[in-house]
Design goal:
transmembrane; single chain; membrane; mainly alpha; elongated; 5 helices; transmembrane helix
Length: about 150
């Protein structure tokens, strides 16, 4: 084994277990974004939706709480921060893909089956789809990508 490889192994052994592997700037940015997104999920469901429906309430509250927890862990530099953030983002991405696919299917059905009335409903659902895509698909996919380990 070369001297350089031995030195890297020694540095890994000395490194504290509470540190994460991504750069501090990336961790801080992801932590702040996670906190903001978590608050937006919870506030959006409990303050802005006019009707209560338990699947939406429970799901959005769980996603929001997950983002808040991962944001706090990322900002504190906890050892499990990146793992928790990847899990929360991955679950949100999976839920987002299912919701977006269901909305797209519903838009197509309304548009094709119900004439002018269905076209109006399709436009409303299309607006909802466009508003949900950044929060349920784009950001979680970007977070999973940026938190994946890089080849060194």
């Amino acid at each position: 084994m070369s001297q350089r490889a031995k030195k890297k192994d020694a540095e890994r052994e000395v490194a504290p277990a509470t540190m994460t592997t991504s750069p501090p700037a990336r961790r801080t940015a992801m932590g702040v974004i996670d906190l903001v997104l978590g608050v937006l999920f919870v506030l959006g469901v409990w303050a802005f939706l006019p009707v209560r429906w338990w699947p939406v309430d429970v799901g959005a509250t769980a996603i929001g709480a997950g983002f808040v927890v991962s944001g706090v862990l990322l900002l504190r530099g906890h050892a499990l921060a990146e793992r928790v953030a990847k899990i929360v983002a991955g679950v949100t991405l999976a839920i987002g893909i299912v919701v977006i696919a269901a909305l797209a299917y519903t838009i197509g059905s309304l548009y094709g089956l119900y004439g002018p009335v269905g076209q109006g409903g399709a436009v409303l659902l299309l607006v909802a789809l466009v508003l949900l895509v950044p929060y349920l698909v784009v950001f979680p996919a970007a977070q999973v990508y940026f938190l994946l380990p890089r080849a060194r």
